[in-house]
Please model this.
Amino acid sequence: MIASMKLRMSFTHFIGVRLGGALALSFALTLPAGAQLSSERYDELLKLHQKGERKNLHALSISVMGMESYAERGGDASKQLAITQAINLAATVLATRDVTVSTKTRMSRLPDYDGTEFGGKPLFSGVDPESIEDPRVKSRYIKALEDHEKLLARVNTEREKESAADYALEFVQRMVDAAKDKEKAAKTASDAIQSLAKATWIKDYVRARIFPPEEQSKPDP
Model:
């Protein structure tokens, strides 16, 4: 219980920082303690995340905080409903992922361009383009900077999508663990994954987050 509260407080701080204002932080902190994700709000979030817009990602995590507050106080039926909703919301976000962009690759702040393609000397990282005398090298370097900046933005967006989905799926894990009938809660999660009308990789991704392979491979006691 304490750990989950710390996690929500930590994420609330993250939301406040990312949205840059006391307004966002205040909104997160004043979620109703007994908030349940109504069918109307649930449908609204599904439509919102189908657009795949980065600015909407925080709405998922804020809603999950409200769901957890409600589900922790409710019985297994509440947890099962929350499990299904969270899985569908996470999968909806993942469906907008640009899978051509790897979120695992380590990205440097500057492009890997040495400037020797026209027989000149190599460039130092971070060199001012205006200091480059060869117009061909200067032009290529400026293009490399622009392309790299666009790639960084794309990678960051895709990473934020994964983070938002992961936050919802970590919540599902906690609800399964918190249920009195863990076997039934786990089946609810498994059935929700199976019923997803999404790509196979999304189902595999969701399943691996909720039921980590190391857990699945453990022998029965």
